[in-house]
């Protein structure tokens, strides 16, 4: 199962496991499509695309079960499963900014709200490009290109980990500040339950932790190299990548962000909430936010 000096698989790709995850990711993607259209949460489309890429990636592994020596299916699953989590991360980044605007707590954000989403999505795009480029290099016949591709992928994964750690720090700092000094809006809006903004914030923490663990796993996997322990044992891919990424997609099916942060042109469940669109002309008013706090 080799191409040039690079071995595609050091095991027989599991047909059962790949089939199960193909079905599950497509089912979740179908539900997300319905939820996005119904709630008009267009900002959540990157997660939907990521879920579809995961499903297509496992189709590649199904094909590799029958054609382990064929380059196409190997490249398909390798690239899509590698870069799909970057799209899941992009939606997570956008949700935090909307939560901050929803509770009118821009002054609690460590990063100015107009730069918050742009900063992390930029890092996400950079990571995506590096990982995609590295995976493309690894599909060539030349061993030098394969080695360079592995290094580029590791670099892209490190970028992803770095920005995720930064994101978690920002989210934790915001959470501590809003708990210590809540705004009137934060106290008025529903916090718990499936439509609570605090519940959604906790889901963001969990999803971010899962993607971070997955990224660290991939870093170790590529550092070990093609003959490393992780790439010689398929089970670790399903434990530290497949299961964790499926969990992220399912969590947002159950606790959909539209419950706390309604989509464009829609309203929240009975409390008059409307989407705070980061791409709109909304400009944070730090003075107004401070006045609200001072009134408490």
TL;DR?
The protein is mainly alpha-helical.
How many runs of DSSP E, i.e. beta strands? 2
Strand line-up of the largest beta sheet? 1-2
Kindly estimate the percentage of residues that lie in beta strands according to DSSP.
Answer: under 5%
Give a short account of the largest sheet: 2 strands, antiparallel
Helix content: over 70%
Rg over CA atoms, rounded to whole Å, is 21 Å
Task: Give the number of helices.
Answer: 10
Q: Which regions are unreliable across 5 or more consecutive residues at pLDDT < 50?
A: 268-296
Q: Which shape, going by the Cα principal axes?
A: globular
Spell the H/E element sequence.
EEHHHHHHHHHH
Query: What integer is the average pLDDT?
Result: 86
């Amino acid at each position: 199962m080799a191409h040039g000096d690079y071995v595609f698989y050091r095991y027989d790709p599991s047909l059962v496991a790949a089939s199960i995850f193909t079905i599950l990711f497509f089912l979740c993607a179908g539900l997300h499509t319905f939820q996005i259209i119904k709630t008009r949460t267009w900002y959540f489309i990157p997660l939907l695309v990521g879920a579809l890429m995961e499903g297509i990636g496992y189709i590649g592994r199904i094909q590799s079960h029958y054609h382990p020596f064929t380059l196409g299916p190997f490249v398909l699953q390798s690239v899509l499963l590698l870069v799909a989590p970057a799209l899941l991360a992009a939606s997570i980044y956008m949700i935090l900014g909307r939560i901050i605007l929803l509770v009118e707590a821009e002054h609690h954000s460590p990063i100015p709200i107009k730069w918050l989403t742009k900063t992390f999505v930029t890092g996400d795009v950079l990571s995506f490009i590096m990982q995609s480029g590295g995976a493309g290099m690894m599909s060539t016949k030349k061993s030098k290109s394969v080695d360079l591709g592995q290094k580029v992928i590791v670099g892209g994964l490190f970028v992803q980990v770095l920005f995720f750690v930064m994101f978690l720090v920002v989210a934790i700092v915001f959470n501590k500040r809003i708990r210590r000094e809540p705004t009137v809006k934060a106290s008025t809006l529903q916090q718990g339950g499936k439509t609570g903004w605090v519940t959604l914030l906790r889901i963001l923490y969990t999803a971010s932790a899962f993607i971070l663990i997955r990224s660290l796993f991939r870093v170790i996997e590529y550092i070990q190299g093609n003959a490393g322990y992780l790439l010689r044992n398929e089970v670790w891919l399903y434990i530290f990548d497949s299961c964790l990424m499926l969990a992220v997609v399912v969590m947002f099916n159950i606790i959909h962000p539209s419950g706390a942060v309604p989509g464009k042109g829609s309203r929240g469940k009975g409390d008059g909430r409307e989407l705070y669109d980061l791409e709109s002309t909304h400009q944070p008013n730090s003075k107004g936010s401070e006045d609200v706090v001072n009134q408490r």
